[in-house]
Structure prediction request, 466 residues.
Amino acid sequence: MQEKIYFYYTNDLHSNFDNWPQVAGYLKGAKEERLAENHACWLIDIGDHVDRVHPIAEAFMGKANVELMNDAGYDLATIGNNEGITMAHEDLHHLYDDAEFKVICANLHSLTSTEPDWLHSTVHIHSDSGIKIGVIGLTAPFNAFYELLDWHITTPFQTLEKHINELKESSDIIVLMSHLGISEDQEIARRFDDIDVIIGGHTHHLLRSGETVNNTIITAAGKHCGFAGEVVLTWDHERKGLIDKTATVHDMTELPRDLATEQSLNDLTNKANTLLEQSVINLEEPIDVKWFQHTDIMQKLTGTLKEWTNADVSMLNAGLLLDQIPAGEVTHKDIHRICPHPINPCMVELTGNELTEVIRGSLSRDFTELKLKGFGFRGEILGKMIYAGIEVETVLREDGSEYAEEILHNGKPLDPEYLYKVATADTFTFGRLLPEIARAEEKHYFLPEFLRDLLTDTLRHKWNCH
Prediction:
């Protein structure tokens, strides 16, 4: 006799609720249909469901996302870095208190005296016929951030080595919920023969029909729930083993919208707007925001960053502010709309030579006109870099490009070998946007504050007297 086992999953929603009514309707319908057919079926989320870019996630600090997941009927979830490192310790500690699903993350550990009640390292589930499935969850080890929030993430491979033998002995099938990214998933499949399925995320990869590495099928459904994934396992009871594994994704964008979910989103939006209505400042005139020009608000925000971090120099890109700040009462909702990024302040140490290279790189059109997606940035383009603590004298070349002819700190040229404390957005410590910052040996992140918290402080304490 053969038996089919179904998993339906989402990953990396990032609080982008445009397709959520379709997703919720699809998941509820699929689960209802499979259970009516007497098939084993579970709904799973692979993390980064919460992203404070959206007012609902911001106002409710992720708890409304959990409410929406409850309504959709999820059974299991793991956490992503957006749940893990974009809120204060207590907010994450209680994020899933009301979850009606089990949260599995074997490599998350609290550095305080108590672990969250909702946290499981592994979970065992089973079909009605008794097929035992061991599930383990893992999240990306961004300890430079996590440890500032009193959490620690053990390495994925070390964690798997700790749990895999027990799972093998107690389970017929092993499923890994992985918020680690495609490269890590592939390497895990190469190293751990006993894992049957890896349902992944984090790097927003879309595997339309899965990928088989070694004995493991790997799958993921992109980002923002434009797709939802399905994994079907076929178990042969006579052979006492799996004889088939398939993975597919389903386009959510053209499906009918679940009306109950749509109503819930509308209600949550109205409640979020009310919660974010607290006044920050009352402006007689709007504040201009320009991505390619120097503005007073960006200069003052960059100055606030320098003071707040006690840095020698600070630098922020003008594209961080998405729109002008309107006249009249400015609320937290306005601040969130104008600066929605989950970006933290950061300070690095750079030599004078390295800082010079950073400044010259930030003047290039390749930098200022870059349409960046990711690294916490939720805007359109990076824009002009604004500085505090240094004077940058530039000249225009014949091709229209800008060149830093002179850079002064306290009226003197930069010392090539001196280590300057440079405050900026944590965005630049990742990837290759500004390599000297990404390679800096000393990086200090400031959590849980976002740059919009510094913008609020700037408006409250610096603008009316500017």
Remarks:
- The mean pLDDT is 96.
- The chain has two domains: 2-271, 278-463.
